[in-house]
Give the backbone structure.
Amino acid sequence: MVRQSLEKHDRLVPLASWPKYHPWPSVGGLRHIRFNAEEKGATECFVKRGGRVLVRERKFLEWASVNDPE
């Protein structure tokens, strides 16, 4: 069961579709994080494929748990 849970969060989610899966952050907030990813230490959370920005869900959730906004 644990493995299934990890696999569920090991996916690439289109940035614009993020709200379908998670209530936070908003698309605008996510774009802000991506734009400033280098200085925020979030470069591994995003990939660009075919002109689309995809969020590495598990990496982002791990990053967010350590870098919780105030």
Helices lie at 2-8, 27-35, 37-40, 57-66.
